[in-house]
Design a protein that fits this description.
The complex is a heterodimer of chains A (119) and B (137).
Chain A: H1 11-23, H2 28-41, H3 48-66, E1 71-75, E2 78-83, H4 86-95, E3 102-104, E4 110-111
Antiparallel strand pairs in A: 1-2, 1-3
Helix pairs in contact in A: 1-2
Chain B: E1 3-8, E2 15-22, E3 27-29, E4 35-39, E5 47-48, H1 51-56, E6 71-74, E7 77-90, E8 93-102, E9 110-111, H2 113-116, E10 121-124, E11 127-131
Classes of the chains: A alpha+beta (119), B mainly beta (137).
């Protein structure tokens, strides 16, 4: 278990959480964990496989910036390697019969000034 | 300079035609033929599509995590984009690129500078034309 300091918590919500937790003889931390589990479970757009892939991504994230031209491939909760070409990345995914994946490459941000934005 | 193919816009600006392939699903947009994209030299990103096309291509299955989403500065502030890798079929070539759509705010069907710089293209009057390859230094 981690000790976490949260900022900008609504004091009224916190008071209610504390009261509800106390009424069920739970600590605020236990009630918080329960609430977060429910919140995560209800986020329909996220499925379990993507969550597993994102967990792996977070573990290797630092390596991605060290290889800015490579595609890092994660599927089925497993890191499958990094590749210079996108076609190779897709080939690996097909070999692994993946239907969902993270294909991550360092992406610089940029500008969108004028042009089609004004239409 | 030899012109290969030209496109004329029905309204303002310049357009070209292309299609997008999600190789993981073998999903193509459009299924047959090509779609029209604005030529936008003011956008220094790759390719942008509307969110419904992004979903139609099932790019949400392979889109980058939220903290890797690129953002683009506009005159109205930063615009964060969803992004997924795919293949742009354009001018007889296949270009590996990122396909973007905005999380909130305007999305367009357009080709930005990251792709345009890889093409031999000329803006001639009201037409955008692909040039025969081998003419670009």
């Amino acid at each position: 278990m981690s000790d976490v300091l949260l900022k900008k918590v609504d004091p009224k919500l916190y008071a209610r959480l504390k009261a509800e937790a106390a009424s069920e003889s739970k600590s605020v931390g236990e009630a918080f964990n329960e609430a977060v589990r429910v919140w995560l479970a209800t986020r329909g757009a996220r499925d379990e496989e993507r969550e597993r892939n994102v967990e792996v991504y977070l573990k290797i994230k630092q390596r991605i910036s060290q290889h800015p031209n490579d595609y890092f491939v994660i599927a089925k909760g497993t890191y499958l390697g990094h590749f210079r070409s996108l076609s190779k990345a897709f080939t690996i995914l097909k070999e692994n019969r993946a239907s969902k994946a993270l294909i991550v490459r360092h992406q610089p941000s940029g500008e969108w000034l004028g042009g089609s934005l004004e239409a | 300079m030899k012109l290969k193919e030209c496109f004329e816009s029905t309204d303002w600006g310049y357009v070209i035609e292309a299609s997008i392939l999600n190789p993981l699903r073998d999903q193509r947009f459009p299924e047959r033929g090509r779609a029209v994209f604005k030529v936008d030299t003011g956008f220094n990103g790759p390719t942008m599509v509307t969110s419904d096309i992004f979903e139609l291509l099932r790019l949400s299955d392979i889109e980058v995590p939220e903290d890797m989403r690129p953002s683009y500065m506009t005159l109205a502030g930063a615009l964060t984009m969803r992004s997924a890798p795919a293949v742009l079929e354009i001018a007889g070539r296949q270009i590996e690129t990122d396909i973007l759509t905005s999380c909130a705010g305007p999305s367009r069907m357009l080709v930005g500078f990251q792709v345009l710089r890889q093409l031999n293209i000329a803006l001639l009057g009201n037409r955008a034309c692909f040039l025969e390859s081998g003419r670009r230094n």
